[in-house]
Amino acid sequence: MSRKRIIARKIAGKLVDFISFFFLSCFITTCSIMIFAHGADFTVEYITARAKQTFVNIFFISVLFVIVDSLRRRLTLEKSIENITLALNQITKGDFSVRIEKTGRNYTWYDFEKIIDGINTMTEELSSVEIFKNDFISNVSHEIKTPLAVIQNYGTLLQSPNLSEESRMEYAKAITQASRRLSEMISNILKLSKLENQQIFPNTESYDLSEQLCECLLNFESLWEEKSISIESEIEDSVTINADPEMMSLVWNNLFSNAMKFTPENGEVFVALKKDGNSAVVTVRDTGCGMTEEVKNHIFDKFYQGDPSRASAGNGLGLALVKKIIDITKSEICVSSESGKGSEFTVTVRSD
After folding, report:
1. Taking residues 75-87, what's their average pLDDT?
2. Which helix (H) or strand (E) holds 350?
């Protein structure tokens, strides 16, 4: 509802109140005068008798108005208050599906309608949070069970007395990979939780982004060599930004990790950094499987994995962590991708 309409509605309400009380006052005054002056013979006895009768009549008229006003309050105020109180009691018990129906369009309900709108909006948000919490717990439970099952199964196999050295090394390697994946997932969950609860604040300082990108990229050297991935880079020298270096390193590591994971053998990963006015623009492009529009719409959701065939290589938390850091540091990230033709992530960080 527009502000002008709200003001007009309030003015109309006040005008109706004034007219109602004006005519009510006129009616009571007229009745009092008519009762008092009926058959007027203004002697002392007459005035005394009429004064008593007028007092009694006005008393009963007042009682009648009290009853009428009580009914009005019951319909317009107390009923609305009861509905709101009942809804709030249900909300405190954890029932976020409750919605309060509006009591009408008359101006007398307008203030209650604002309260009702606020409560209904709150319960909708709480319902979404509750669904998200349940999904999050379900996803965490599922993701934790997978590496734990791997560790348990291979741990059991390692107990075999006739196990060859080659099999023993293979099983031990599988256990190590599963435990590392479990550790990374728990670490990411804790980081996300702290970021979302605002328990981590950016520790801003001036540092060389060019150097940081090179260091992060070199951490994946063994992976790109293993898959024979060609690394192309156009990183400008001495690009300085004011940001939290630890947080931003999480962004670059996750983007590089995804690029390496989704790029096939003999593919190519391109990394670029350039200064653009008061901003630094980082581009990470790969020649991997790419994404459909549906996948692009969900890549920053927790535990979302667009390519199930590569689910074992991650836990769906990396890009959610990236997006949260980007939002906290007031940076920007955009994604362009086409299925079968690779993906490109562009991060813009203010350098002043």
Report:
1. 77
2. strand 343-350
Q: Angle 79-92/110-158 helices, nearest 10 degrees? A: 10
β-pairing, 230-235 vs 268-276, is parallel
Residue at token pair 């109309």: 12
Residues in the chain: 352
What confidence tens digit (pLDDT) does each residue in 217-260 have?
888 888 888 899 999 989 998 889 988 888 888 889 889 988 88
Can you list the domains of the chain with their CATH numbers?
Answer: 3-95 (no CATH), 205-350 (3.30.565.10)
Q: CA–CA separation, 320 vs 307, rounded Å? A: 16
Look up residue 54 and give its DSSP letter: H
By CB atoms closer than 10 A (0-12, 13-18, 19+), residue 164 is exposed
Which residue has tokens 């209650």?
112
CA dist., res. 54 & res. 162, Å (int): 113
Are residues 307 and 242 in contact, defined by beta-carbon separation less than 8 angstroms?
no
Coil, strand or helix: which one is 243?
strand
Q: Given a cut of 60, is residue 183 above it in pLDDT?
A: yes
Distance CA 168, CA 155 (A): 10
Distance (Å, whole) CA 263 – CA 232: 13
Among 194, 243, 270, which residue's Cα sits nearest to residue 348? 243
